[in-house]
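Sample A.
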Amino acid sequence: QFDLAPASRRVTFFLRETGIKVPIVQLNVRDGDQFKELYNSLNPVHRIPFLELDNGTTIAQSVAICAYLEETYNVPKKLFGNNS
């Protein structure tokens, strides 16, 4: 993630609000870190933030990252609502 990017801030606020803990790596998009290897291979669309799943799949859209984490971690405070 890149803290100055609005999409990264969205994920950061979501993580704080839900209490979900995930490892975070800061990339400096001003220096083009997202184009350097290892990140280029993980995230060929070069979007920040992105989330690599255990199966190697990458999610590179902030709302999708938040929704995935909310569902995966089954947090009691649902920010995206409940379909049931």
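Sample B, a different protein:
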Amino acid sequence: MLMFGDGGWEPDRTDAQETRLGEWMDGLRGSRARVVVLECGAGTGVPTVRMFGEQLVRAVGATLVRV
């Protein structure tokens, strides 16, 4: 997940966070948890933020609110 020439990025912390996020999302499947994603000011120029909320809607039936 590099942007704008971040060639020296050290991925260890990001990798650990992505692992924890995946485990959290896996735990939501089949649970009775209700997830709401509140997305504030995410433009269309860099769509990765918007895609994450949409992914949660598909994966766990989250409610997505875009402001």
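Observation for Sample B: The beta strands are 36-39, 63-66.
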